[in-house]
Design a protein that fits this description.
Blueprint: H1 31-34, E1 44-49, H2 61-71, E2 81-85, H3 101-123, E3 128-134, H4 136-146, E4 148-152, E5 155-160, E6 173-179, H5 207-213, E7 220-223, H6 241-244, H7 246-262, E8 298-303, E9 306-310
Parallel strand pairs: 1-2, 1-3, 3-6, 6-7
Antiparallel strand pairs: 4-5, 8-9
Helix pairs in contact: 2-7, 3-4, 4-5
Length: about 300
């Protein structure tokens, strides 16, 4: 059996340059994105769980813009759409002195996400809710829906219960899109068929968590690339870019899925409808590394200008 390895990704400064993303830990300067940031009652309202060490709202901002732009493009001027951040630390284990900081951070995220959804759904009972998550935030989003907790990386995350899809706030969730999650399992019905669906994440989820998560399969789409060291660490062609190119590859596919679900249109229900490329399609040139960029404890890669350290 393979020795457990701690993979820690700091997503800071290593973002595909094609998309304007508010990933740095400074206030987001994208005014059209900031204009969607609200806790007011809306027709459609997204909750965003950002990746480790990322600023708010992080890599999922452009997807939120696509989705809301589409959902508010109809003739009905009363239709509103926006997002709020799931407020949690998003600490990578790299950032802390102890190895359990990732688990503490994710547990805070799972609890905060459920509380924010509950508070919003109580206050805004007509709203249709959308859940988005990437990397640690993808793990958090899965925890929000299907319950979380257990061993992840080299620490043990506190348990949290699943949300019941039959009662509020679970019943308000019309769509969820999750990318590069840490704590996930192979061969699940909501996984997009682009390769990573055949591999476990850094650790697999428990049978109980998977069974509760599967209740959301009709509204959930989970993306995991082959070669992503976080969501498919035992797959071939491991490279950090495979953890970072989801938004170039799949934003259109995810937006189409979310919009169709949000509008109550099931035409996009079956599996992937867009590019089903594997790691071979990866556009390495778009990775823009930097000092303090992407760090994976355990080995060492050099990607662009970014150095990845990995240790066993
Ligand atoms: C979004 O709104 C919250 C308050 O609701 C605020 O704390 C945060 O700084 C805002 N900006 C971004 C980019 O998330
Ligand atoms: C929009 O909301 C206003 C106020 O509630 C209402 O009078 C109007 O009919 C609505 N318009 C549409 C197109 O639903
Ligand atoms: C955890 O993340 C928060 C910001 O989200 C940061 O303020 C804090 O310093 C981080 N903790 C450590 C130990 O890095
Ligand atoms: C992982 O956990 C084990 C058991 O608690 C500990 O002995 C080991 O040092 C940890 N490894 C790392 C890299 O923190
Ligand atoms: C995923 O993890 C489960 C639970 O440990 C294990 O039974 C299964 O064989 C693993 N699947 C793959 C593809 O690694
Ligand atoms: C909105 O999304 C639907 C479904 O993906 C698509 O058919 C339509 O062209 C989009 N409309 C706009 C204005 O983006
Ligand atoms: C559902 O999708 C079909 C085909 O894409 C489209 O013609 C129809 O207008 C959509 N319905 C709604 C309610 O969006
Ligand atoms: C979607 O899946 C259902 C059930 O598996 C099948 O009957 C239907 O034909 C599929 N629709 C499309 C558009 O692939």
């Amino acid at each position: 059996m393979k020795t457990p390895t701690i993979f820690t990704l700091s997503l800071l400064s290593l973002t595909p340059s094609i998309l304007a993303q508010c990933t740095d830990p400074v206030p987001c300067q994208d005014e059209s994105l900031n204009a969607l940031n609200t806790t007011a009652c809306q027709t459609y309202h997204a909750f965003i769980a950002r990746g480790s060490d990322s600023g708010y709202p992080g890599h999922l901002g452009p997807l939120a813009k696509l989705v809301c732009g589409n959902l508010t493009s109809s003739a009905d001027s009363n239709t509103t759409c926006g997002y709020e951040n799931i407020v949690y630390p998003a600490n990578s284990s790299w950032s802390g002195p102890t190895t359990d900081i990732w688990c503490k951070s994710a547990a805070i995220g799972a609890q905060a996400g459920q509380e924010q959804l509950r508070e919003y759904a109580d206050r805004c009972p007509d709203a249709k809710l959308i859940l988005l998550g990437f990397s640690q935030g993808g793990s958090v989003a899965l925890d929000v829906l299907g319950g979380g907790g257990g061993v992840v990386f080299n620490c043990t995350q506190e348990d949290n219960a699943a949300l019941d899809p039959e009662s509020s706030p679970g019943s308000h969730i019309v769509a969820a899109a999750i990318f590069g999650a840490v704590h996930r399992s192979a061969h699940q019905p909501y996984s997009v068929q682009n390769g990573g669906q055949n591999y476990n994440g850094s650790t697999p989820r428990s049978a109980a968590q998977l069974s509760d998560l599967a209740k959301y399969k009709d509204v959930l789409r989970e993306y995991c690339n082959v070669g992503d060291p976080i969501c498919a660490p035992s797959s071939p062609d491991q490279a950090p870019v495979n953890h970072l190119n989801y938004f170039e590859k799949y934003n259109d596919d995810a937006a189409e899925f979310i919009v169709a679900k949000a509008r109550g249109n099931d035409s996009a229900e079956n599996g992937t409808s867009g590019d089903s490329g594997d790691a071979g399609d990866v556009q390495q040139g778009s990775v823009d590394g930097g000092a303090g960029g992407l760090k994976v404890e355990g080995l060492a890669w050099v990607v662009g200008f970014g150095v990845i350290v990995l240790g066993l």
